[in-house]
Amino acid sequence: MLRISKMTDYAVVLATHLAVSDTPRTVRDLAGESGIPQPTASKVLKLLAKSGVVTSFRGARGGYSLSGRPANIPVLDVVCAIEGPVAVTECSSEEASGSCEYEGSCEVQANWQKINVAIQAALHRITLADMVRAEPSAELVVLSRSRQDALERQQIAVPTARTQEATDNDDHRADQRISG
Amino acid sequence: MLRISKMTDYAVVLATHLAVSDTPRTVRDLAGESGIPQPTASKVLKLLAKSGVVTSFRGARGGYSLSGRPANIPVLDVVCAIEGPVAVTECSSEEASGSCEYEGSCEVQANWQKINVAIQAALHRITLADMVRAEPSAELVVLSRSRQDALERQQIAVPTARTQEATDNDDHRADQRISG
DNA sequence: AGATACAGGACCGTTTTAGTACAGTTTGTG
DNA sequence: CACAAACTGTACTAAAACGGTCCTGTATCT
Predict the structure, then answer these.
(1) How many CB pairs below 8 A link A and B?
(2) Which string of b and e fits B76-92 if b means at least 16 CB within 10 Å?
(3) Which of A1, A12, A91 best probes binding to B when mutated, by most B CB atoms within 10 angstroms?
(4) Which pTM value belongs to this model?
(5) B115: CB within 7 A of chain D nucleic strand
(6) CA spacing 20 to 30 A to A111: which of A28, A79, A91, B143?
């Protein structure tokens, strides 16, 4: 869920590489050591520079360096640099006139903002400094609980024990694959 | 940033509609009152049923109803029902062999999980019951601060006052449009 | 039996994404 | 000064994902 684009992933990788050296690095170096194709790395770094996360130095002996201390740069900035400031739902981005006169839908839309805030807060707390120290936490399996909840819900569903054919999804989705 | 697909948006809308009535509703009804095209609504509801968020009743007088109390169904379940359990980064989904032998990248990848957990925790806290009561909170503007942080960072960047041409992005991205 | 309604795919046009390429500009160096 | 090294900006393309529709099958109620 909540797919973050590959470009954004690259951006975090590149920013992390910049975080561990204080002299400017060239695109070629960064691309080489991160395994990201050079033109693509260039594109990503250009975006990062445009939004001020990194600073660019042109000309011979130029390159990119972080615009600040890694501990002061939240991952949110990196993400926003690539994906733009668009919100989670579409109708919250434009004037949202016309299509959203269904009040039932739009009261939901108002609450998407709550979710939006929560997610962005989470991304704001984590900084690039946190990203460099790799600590593979073991409590990641928590994620897959939600699936289990769904199954437990099956038992206590509506009292009328009618068909309940939704129970047939035994484990053809056991590829939870979070532990990565 | 973090675009949630329109399908997922639909799913939350539909689930919210189901949350306010305890008798099963047909696709036609739900589609009609939510403004979602009927075939699309059907597709979404099928997915929700498959992952157990809603329960389906076939045949005449059939329909869909929530599989549990709205307060017990986190939005995370709805989102996962549509988008699947894939993680934020791509290389954390497969076995991630082969492409990820760059240790610099992969230590970052390990930390993406941290972000993943944070986001999913946020989505887990909010339930369908929260989505029903529409309370347009006014403190949403917090989001756009991150942009401002970036600008402030420009001032204190690397001490060597070289080119700093990244400062030229005055406000051609002032369309922060979060207030919705 | 017939109408109602969900299930499960197949299908298709459009948009987005990822990646590449190229011409231009800035800056250090010989 | 000329050249090379690097970034800047824009345009372009192939592939994948997304949004949406439709059709056939099956279950259930009347």
Answers:
(1) 316
(2) bbbbbbbbebbbbbbbb
(3) A1
(4) 0.74
(5) no
(6) A79
